[in-house]
Amino acid sequence: MKTIVKYVFLDLVRNKTVLVYTLILAALSISVLGFDANTSKGLLSLMNISLLFVPIISILFATIYFFNSIEFIELLLAQPIKRQKVLLAEYIGLATSLSLAYIVGIGTPLIVLAAGAASFTLIATGVLLSLIFSSFALLIFVLFKDKTRGIGAAIILSLFFTILFDGLLMMFIYSFSDYPIDEVVVGILSFNPIDLARVLMLLKLDVAVLMGYSGALFKKFLGSSTGTIYSFSWLLFWVFLPLLLSVRIFKRKDL
Amino acid sequence: MISIEHITKSFGRFKALDDVSLQLESGRTISLLGPNGSGKTTLIKSVLGLVIPEKGEIKVNGQAVRNNWQYRGQIGYMPQIGRYPENMTIEQVLNMIKEIRHENTRYDNDLVDGFELKKIQHKTMRSLSGGMRQKVSACLAFLFSPDILILDEPTAGLDPVSSELLKEKIMQEQDSGKLILITSHVLSDLEGITSHIIYMQDGKPLFYKSTEELQEITGEIRLNKIIAHIIKGQQHNKKGVEHENHS
Amino acid sequence: MSLIGKKILSLLGLLILTAMSYGSTIYVKPGKAAIQAAINNAIAGDTIIIHEGVYNEHDIHVSKKLFISGKGNVIIDGQRKSEIFVLSANGIVLQGLTIQNTGISSMQDMAAVRIQEANYVTVRNNKILNNTYGVYVQNGAHCLVKTNIISSGAVSEQNSGNGIHVWRGDSLRIEGNKVSGHRDGIYLEFVVHSIVVNNTSEKNLRYGLHFMFSHDDVYSKNTFSDNGSGVAVMFSNRVTMTGNVFKNNWGDAAYGLLLKEITDGKIEGNLFIRNTVGVYMEGATRIHTSKNIFKDNGWAMRIQASSSNGSFTQNNFINNSFDVATNGTMVMNVFKNNYWDKYDGYDLDRDDVGDIPYYPVSLYAVVTEKVPTAMILYRSFLTDILDKVEKVMPSIIPDQLKDDSPVMKKWELK
User: Is the minimum CB–CB distance between B70 and chain A shorter than 8 Å?
Assistant: First the structure.
């Protein structure tokens, strides 16, 4: 398995898209952090950039990559090696490359220009989002036979988590505003890794007071160390759930 | 040898393989022929474990294929379309498969040398033509001297010289007692190397006979003539059946 | 006699006259109850000079007009037993002392310096440290509390007192003090015609400055930073607030300036920076807010619908998360000629005034005002889009709350 991870990774570090992605992230973070004396504001901008671009680019790139590798995966599966190993190795190689792109593009400027707990959280959540949406891409890959449909599913899924989910959540909050729903909302929030990443990050920045202003429990709970562990656990859950599902489905998949 | 017993595989309503049973003996070069959608690829993929049949059992040298992966160490596979990670070099691809099949340390470099891949081993897969990629695929299949070779359209896209080289290699392997399973559309390329022919139609083998036998039955020598003869007879029969139904 | 000689003579005469008006001078050195003894021995108009040293004394009552001054580092330590100075005669001056460690009691307000039913009292240049209450004016007029350093380490609101506390006062002047670590930095209740100027009030648990039922007062050029909230003005009329800095009042329910049930105030030339809420108004009537800078606040202003007839003109709103939030469709206040950094209108006639109105209440501000839980979606892609759409087609936001003539360039303020 290590072998395949190594070679997939070697292939991807020379991939132009990954390279461009890294460079764009780096350019964005340097310009945001460099021009703004206010680190907190810079981090906030970087957070928004990460939340918008990392999921959609990760899932799209990964989906396309997996589907383009289908013949190669077939060749690998014709070798004496377990199916799961091939799939997991493909995932690990890809997810590592995308995470590395994020760490180099956003992480390095952050550590140089604005080292701190909030920066670390941003890097961690960005990497987790890369892992999560690569994992979703893998699930799409094993579920769909056709690349075009796969890409369609990837776009829909990322749009769902980026905006649709929040819309539904907003409607829910609005309709049940007369009831004590804070805890329910935290529960619902756990189903969207992008929201989790956003709240986790916001609570590390000084704008967190906006969340605590109305006496809502968000800051109290999610801002505590228990809340941080809670959020990170959910994010990890979102890495592993699609991954395990993919492996299960892939066991029985015809290529 | 590969023994296939009562294999059935359907995709949705479509029956790709319908209760197929075949014994593929060592020392044979078997051509798997048939129109598109007749189940050739599904059959190959079932042997490789890429497609999982609903019914039946496949054994490779006595080892059941289902839920097994070790048996593939005895198979060399050359896919129809060779697509590789774009930025990998030829050398990396060869090394990667070598590392995966690390238990096998003796390499058959005949094709690597014959195709002169060493000279261009630093080229990336993206920069290679389709023919070049086919050569890489062929090398990978033969590299570990496996007992069984499964070649899916091996000569498509190869230049005549390379094609000849590959054919020679196939014959050489057959002589050393290996089982070679080939699918091809270009019947003339199979001329002289194939010892047996399986003709698939509608998910079933229409026949599985040695070349000599077929030549005898049809009275033709060349492969494409033989096949044409049989298909004509087949269509004739079919029409006859339909006719009977109508009356 | 030379001219110089005459001058010296007249100066001497003046000095003598001054000395006479204060009577004699009494010097105090450390000893048991030395200060109280000296005071008891003095007569009104005397001067008491306290020499350097530590005096462990408390409940020092001054009931005659004395001039009490420290010489060198004079420390009067109440040893956490009781009050320290109680001044109950007109015209007392208390200066140059370090007064520390009053008692802590839930029955009685323990003050380092209590001015009790007395006028024209001056407390200046003292260090008033680690006390429950610092300077406590209990019914006084024309008193001066100036350039004192008043600090304590209050931990909870229940067990702490205020830095400068006034209960009934008239024409007081509180100037140039540095107050920190108390419950309220400066607390004024039933105080009229008074001036609070050039003070720094920081790191107090509740408010930097707190008005209750106090009218016709002015506070200006003060700095309020890192308090629970900057300034609270409650149930007071005609309070003028100018040139102050309200900063870093940053916390779950922290305000720069909190106005509750007040009328006829003026808020001018202040700087509100990094407060959770810059200005909060509830039941504020006829408050005129102009030429202020609101920068980097969570909400620049929260104006409850109970506020009316106010005006907001020529202010700069820069980089606030929300400019204005309100709980109703308030139209009883006027917004005019403000600079809003979020304004993206145009100025075709080049008169430096935007041609289309600015709606300072964003959709998301309206939503979170109605449903605070929606704050969980802060900074999400969805809310950004909703705000943009709403700007183009206002349907939910209070469309009467608008600045019809937003200026294109920042006002030059400060």
Answer: yes
What single-letter amino acid sits at A220?
K
Q: At A112, is the pLDDT very low, low, confident or very high (cuts 50, 70, 90)?
A: confident
Listed in sequence order, the residues at least 6 apart from C125 whose beta carbon sits closer than 8 Å to its beta carbon are C95, C96, C146, C147, C148
Query: What digits encode the pLDDT tens for the residues A46-74?
Result: 999 999 999 999 999 999 999 999 999 99
Q: Under a CB-based contact definition with an 8 Å cutoff, are residues C271 and C315 in contact?
A: no
Radius of gyration of chain A (CA): 19
Chain-centroid distance, C-alpha A244: 17
The pTM of this model reads 0.83
Q: Do chains B and C touch (3 or more CB pairs under 8 A)?
A: no
Examine the pLDDT at B247 and tell me if it is beyond 60.
Answer: no
Mark out chain C residues that contact chain A at CB-CB < 8 A. 250-254, 276-277, 296, 298, 319, 321, 367-368, 370-385
Eight-state DSSP code of residue C278: E
Give the strand pairing for C322-326 and C299-303. Answer: parallel
| Percentage of residues of chain A with pLDDT beyond 90 | 62
Residues A198, A200, A206, A212, CA torsion sign: positive
Helices (H), B101-159: 110-114, 130-142
| CB-closest option in A11, A71, A254 to B81 | A71
* Phi, psi at C47, each rounded to 5°: -110, 135
Instruction: Tell me the mean pLDDT in the region B140-160.
Output: 89
Complex ipTM: 0.88
Quick check: C18 pLDDT over 60? no
Closest of C280, C196, C284 to residue C241, by C-alpha:
C196
* pLDDT bracket for residue B106 (50, 70, 90): confident
CA–CA separation, C398 vs C256, rounded Å?
25
Interval C274-331: pLDDT, tens: 999 999 999 999 999 999 999 999 999 999 888 989 999 999 999 898 999 888 775 6
Q: Measure CB to CB from residue A77 to each of B11, B49, B71 and give the nearest one.
A: B49
Helix H, strand E, coil C: the string for chain A is CHHHHHHHHHHHHCCHHHHHHHHHHHHHHHHHHHHCCCHHHHHHHHHHHHHHHHHHHHHHHHHHHHHHCHHHHHHHHCCCCCHHHHHHHHHHHHHHHHHHHHHHHHHHHHHHHHCCHHHHHHHHHHHHHHHHHHHHHHHHHHHCCCHHHHHHHHHHHHHHHHHHHHHHHHHHHHHCCCCCCHHHHHHHHCCCHHHHHHHHHHCCCCCHHHHHCCCCHHHHHHCCHHHHHHHHHHHHHHHHHHHHHHHHHHHCCCC
* Confidence check: pLDDT of A99 > 80: yes
In 3D space, the residue among C44, C90, C50 whose CA is nearest the CA of residue C68 turns out to be C50
- DSSP one-letter code for C237: B
φ, ψ of residue B5 in degrees (nearest 5): -125, 115
Q: What are phi and psi of B26, to 5 degrees?
A: -65, 160
Q: Number of C-alpha atoms within 13 angstroms, CB side, residue C213? A: 6
